[in-house]
Every structure is written in C-alpha cells, then in structure tokens.
Hints:
Elements: H1 3-16, H2 18-31, H3 34-57, H4 62-76, H5 79-106
Amino acid sequence: MNIYDKFNELAAELKVNPDVVAFRDAALKIQSDETKTKMLEDFRKIQIAAYTESMESGKVTDETTEKMQNFASVIKTNPDINEYLQAEVRFSILFEDMMKIINDAVGVDVIGAGK
Length: 115
C-alpha cells in the first residue's frame, strides 16, 4: 500500500471521528447564522488584538482585557458559539497531535509543531 492510500484511510477516519464530526456540525451551525458568524469574528478580532499586544509589549491593555471579558460573558450565554469553541479546542488538539506524529516521522520540525 502506498502513502496516498494511507492518507485516504486517514481522511476516511477523520470524517467519522467524533471530535471532527462535532467540530464540523458546530461550525455549520455558526456559518448558517449571520449574527453568530459576526459575533465569532468579533471575538476573534479581540483575541488577535490581545495576542498582538502581548507579543509587542509583553502585556495586554486593560481595555482589551475588559473587551475579552465582556465578550466571554456574552459567548457563554450563546450555546452554539460555546459549543463551537469547545469543539474547536478538541479538534485543535487532535490536529496538533497529528502534526507532531508527522514531524516525528519526517525527523524535521517542518511545520513548527515541535517535538
């Protein structure tokens, strides 16, 4: 069996993996609702701002921290967005683990996932 056959097997397994299915379903719920999509996009912008501030100055401003806290409170009350964020975390862990396995097999940190 060649490597592409193995990748296709992996793809088939991913399609039915509970974490992938949950992530896909949660994402489709968000994508089908313009208000939820906008809310998630706005939350991402605040996350990026906080990350940028942290990288540039070593800390996050009080204003950005307050925005993050306010948005987090709103998101907690929205079950679909909350479900999406939780599913995204589980999927991210799965994806990161796959990248670590690939890096180990290649023997070079080709994508920044580390060892």
